[in-house]
Amino acid sequence: MSDLSKLVKAYDVRGVVPDQLNESVARALGTAFVEMLRESGDDADQIVIAHDMRESGPGLSAAFGRGVNAAGAAVLGIGLASTDELYYASGSLGLPGAMFTASHNPARYNGIKLCRAGARPVGQDSGLAVVRRRAEQLLADLNAKADGPARVETRDLLRDYAAHLRSLVDLSGIRPLKVIVDAGNGMGGYTVPAVLGDQVLPALPLTIVPMYFELDGSFPNHEANPLDPANLADLQRAIREQGADIGIAFDGDADRCFIIDENGDPVSPSAITALVAVRELARFPGSTVIHNLITSAAVPEIITEHGGKPVRSRVGHSFIKAEMARTNAVFGGEHSAHYYFRDFWFADTGMLAAMHVLAALGGQERPLSELGAEYERYAASGEINSTVADVPAKVEEVRSAFPGAAVDELDGMTVTLPDGAWFNLRASNTEPLLRLNVEAPKPDRMASLRDEVLAIVRR
To answer: Which residue ranges does the record assign to the Alpha-D-phosphohexomutase C-terminal domain (predicted)?
Structure first.
């Protein structure tokens, strides 16, 4: 029997094309997805399917659609889209969805993000393991499902998606801003002109300067992963040279955004989480806001100061989305620049987060560096990865080095010291890595604690 365990991950499907993911596998996954939905009591009469700019996207998504048809369900194809546009389609139309993307992975990869109707996530524990097992069975029996009648409808939802986002954040009255956007040859090059430009809706007081808007899944300029500082260098240089007010970098499927200030300096995702939280709490006083456990300690402080209820979550979108649904949270933010909105079916959208930042910046006169400083209270290391042979043993070695500290194990090990400094040590789900995040009231204290922990981890 085919083994898809290396392809079907904890949260999505992702692998090398065609070695791991090809049209036969995509077709089997399409059938398996419909069957899983029906077995769990969900309506699966029609599935909405989209793909990003990767060369393999059209063929794989069409094959998945044939699998959907083979299971007796219809396909609504929306063609090229960002991941959050697929979530918009799933949420607004009430349909389960499949987004073909490998996000920021290199060109040879592709993958699928699956969701139930209303953009509700499908992960390992919420249907993905069932999809994998059923697809493996289908691949083992070439006669398992004959192609059904081709029931495929196509629709362009770009204008509707853009109009929906503009209905959530009004940018029409802000001061004029010069905005440089690095789309990394990803789907931001498709969605930014529609949402922030005048391609399908009236112009906003924004001068958009495009960088790498040509859709190209080979990523000829740099990887479409804004969390890697190397991929921000071109944008930072352009901001300084052109005197822009703000820079925005999107990842490949444009569900994450990274913000750069007028000096070319990154604004931390924790600061963006706090800024957006304050704006949403002004609209919905007393609401819950979710943050993962490695965002800055400033985030829950600022949420509380503005009358909100901070709730700490494990790292990962399935945990954040589950907590948001459980608490009816208005907003959620992660250190990885994923931002989730109740107004957007609890799903993540980098575009909506960027619009909140533009509204906050354009609604007052100070530069972004000053505005962002309000939300940056502590010195943070960022995530540092170390390869280790025995992850559990190394975690215990670090724990024993801090005998008087407070320790919690919501996700990995978080150690909080009496002076307010803290660190989190988490094992990777997929590699023999330990991930370290450190924060302290002052930069020198952060550096000394970081070096102390790393010395133990790496010896």
So the answer is: 383-454
